[in-house]
Amino acid sequence: MKWPPQQGYKNQDIKGKRDYNYSFFNPTSQVAKMIFCLICTGVFLSGDGDRLKTPIASVSPQSLATKITQIASNITVRILNQDFLGSGFIVQHNNQEYLVVTNQHVLRAGEPPYTIETVDGSTYRGEVITEANTVKDQYDLAVLRFKADTDYQTAKIGSSLNLEVGESVFAAGFPYQESSSTKTAGVATKSNLFPQKKLTLKSGRVAIVLNQALDEGYQIGYTNDVKKGMSGGPLLNSQGEVIGVNGKHAFPLWESPEIYQDGSELCPALQELINRSSLAIPIEKTVQLTTELKPVKPPEVEASLKSNRSEQERQLVAKMQAQAKATQLECHEQNTPLLRF
Fold this sequence. Notes:
Blueprint: H1 21-25, H2 30-45, H3 61-75, E1 76-80, E2 84-94, E3 97-102, H4 104-108, E4 114-117, E5 123-128, H5 133-138, E6 142-147, E7 168-173, E8 176-178, H6 180-185, E9 193-195, E10 200-209, E11 220-222, E12 234-236, E13 242-248, H7 268-275, E14 278-282, H8 303-307, H9 311-330
Antiparallel strand pairs: 1-2, 1-4, 2-3, 3-6, 4-5, 5-6, 7-10, 7-12, 8-9, 10-11, 11-14, 12-13, 13-14
């Protein structure tokens, strides 16, 4: 399992609170003004101006959720045949061809031909282009292609390699909604569920990141309350980047325990943590499905995102990391290497 080390990030945010008011507004400091202007000009001309932009994650939780919802709504699609099957998201396009990632089990819920419904309500015929059978059997992932004259937004791809326990993540998709009779009876069946066209965004935090993938490639566990129908939708970080593919919700109805891809079993403490977590497949796995998908860029650590956390959030992250380490110790994996989050 991947476990977070001691937090060693220094605050590199530009909000270093020195008081420059006196020197820059004093009439005798014209030289300082000129130097400051030259420095700023140099920063922007060198292409480093983005460093002065406020990161998305520094806004309030409400504003952040709104921004992530806007991003997710533009890239997330509904997968259908005669019925609604699940969610997916647009990863890239070339001219009029678009590529969509979803789960295999979403497609297995129906039969081809598949239909892709985009943010504007338009529908397109989706062609499955997953190539290698060995990879297809290894991961619960699939890629579809559709053609459209409309210019749709594509996902900004991030990396799961920077994830740490306690980090905020956002799961997007189109969940089924239970009928009132289902809620009363307390038993959900497919006949008692109906799809909704409104995108849902579920916020939560990373609970665990495994070194070794579970069966079908699942490796990221998180607290987001993912619902049936959101499978295949994007898992996004606080920068609006897709870092995983939603696939399993917490507390599954089936009692079959999770296993690793090599067939080995999980220890009871880890199994319990996995059972109460929603699960996603890292976005890096998608590039193995077809040569048409571009490689994921190497991750860039944004230390300021962590330094901007409130004291309450730091305490919550520390608590979740302590719980993850406790699970590690209980499973007798003290020698497992730590991630550099």
